What does this fold into?
Amino acid sequence: MTTPVLEAVGLYKSFGGVHATDDLHLSVQAGELHAVIGPNGAGKTTLISQLCGWEYPDRGIIRFNGRDITRMPAHRRAQLGMARSFQITSLIMDLSVRDNVALAVQATEGSSFRFVRAARTEQHIQQQALQNLALVGLEEKADLAAAALSHGEHRRVEMAMALASKAPLLLLDEPMAGLGAEESVKMVELLQGLKGQRTMVLIEHDMDAVFALADRISVLVAGHIIATDTPQAIRTNAQVLAAYLGEDEAEVPHA
It folds into this structure.
């Protein structure tokens, strides 16, 4: 069996008396889009924070391509090839769309985010920024201030920044959050186009998007993954259905 790109083994993380992750096991294979879903308060945000290195587990192991990264800081994980997108966009609104992505390209080349002027004047950085904006369908808005874009376009710019990192593993933290119907469709199309090119872990509340995109789904309840399977199998899993009782019925799509 091939080594998973990302593996979490027995993760425990508590805050006071609350177990945010509780003996959590997760295995993500190369090239798959692996979604993690769960009721509100299940521990999804804590999980992705541990995977990207913003928080460390109290116990357990996290491996990236077989390497133990459990205590590795976030910036080192990024250097190894992990990129995270956030629930809340992290753009510099006074800069142009192109400059935001150019800074991400510059950081990938080891120059950090310190020098906006360099990112603006280096032709190859500008070209790569435009190429990544083209991937998300925003090259025509490259010279607009980021503040002039819609919320959905902000999410797509952030995705362009994640792609600019050239990271083989993308950790996507609710990319549909706050999007309207039309913007959600565009984001689903974007992620669909990336399938097979990058390994992706998707934390998402939009179940229509999850079931349209995921190769496999892990269901997180009270810090513990109760099931990992194909979307078709998850739809009819008795444990999963029981976990969602009391939630909005739209949370678990019907077959």
